[in-house]
Amino acid sequence: MSKPENNINALSWRRLHLSRAKLKASSRTSALLSGFAMVALVEIQLSKGISSQLLVAFSVCTTLLVSVHMLALMISTCILPNLEAVASVHGIAAVSESPHEKMHLYIETAWAFSTVFGILLFMAEIAILSWVVFHEYRDAALAATIILIPVAIVFVVFAVHFYRQLVTHKFEQSVMSVKELENMVSQLQDGGGGSTDNAASLLNV
Questions:
Q1: CA end-to-end distance (rounded Å), the chain
Q2: What is the per-residue pLDDT for 91?
Q3: Distance between CA 56 and CA 40 in Å, rounded?
Q4: DSSP 3-state percent helix, strand, coil across the chain (nearest 5)
Q5: What is the C-alpha to C-alpha distance for residues 136 and 50, in angstroms, rounded to an integer?
Q6: I want to staple 23 with a disulfide (CB 3.0 to 4.6 A). Which of 76, 145, 155, 185 is the partner?
Q7: Nearest CA to 114 among 79, 153, 68?
Q8: Over the stretch 56-106, which tens digit does the pLDDT of each residue have?
């Protein structure tokens, strides 16, 4: 295998391990938070005097929380074994057998559902749960809500900032990768002969 092809496979190999790490983190987070929501739904002791609107909000938030995390967990469970199988093979040439490029949208969806929407729903779940449990002690429920509001704001600000930094980093890496590929293609074309076919295949990647 030529050096340019090795470099291309190395880039795809890094993306494979990144996708693998994202799916692992998503599956762990989703299993943990959805398990907490199910325990809270089953173990909560409801008393008389709780408004029906509050109970509806609690049931809707819990259902959304579990559904979002179960979707992320399902995606991770379906895709992760295929990535693990390729990652366990020695040699970067096997990276072409991994579906992480084709399944990139699903991987990012699982990551977003687990770490962004799921955590926001989890915070909302805590706030609503505090009102359900402490409905007779409004000061305690209000204190929990007041604490959660700035935490949620900080989380959203951090998520937006992290996303912007990540997009900037990906853009810079993409520019560097394009320049590197252009240099590889020019080197192959300068070699002439059979290298021209390799150059054409690199352009189609």
A1: 16
A2: 58
A3: 15
A4: 85, 0, 15
A5: 9
A6: 76
A7: 68
A8: 998 899 999 999 999 999 999 998 888 887 777 765 656 666 777 788 889
Residue bearing the bigger pLDDT, 192 or 87 = 87
pTM for the whole structure: 0.70
Q: What gap in Å lies between CA 1 and CA 53, rounded to an integer? A: 65
Residue with tokens 């496979």: 9
Q: What does the DSSP 8-state code read for residue 50?
A: -
Token output for 148:
């959660």
Give the tens place of pLDDT for each residue, 139-173: 888 898 899 899 889 988 988 887 787 777 666 76
At position 11, the amino acid (one-letter code) is L
* Amino acid of residue 91: G
List of residues 6+ apart from 191 with CB closer than 8 A:
none
| From 17-26, 81-90, 114-123, 136-145, the region with the lowest mean pLDDT | 81-90
Give the pLDDT of residue 3: 52
Whole-number CA gyration radius for the chain? 24
* Angle at alpha carbon of residue 24, lines to 21 and 29, rounded to 5°: 125
Tokens of 68: 């979002």
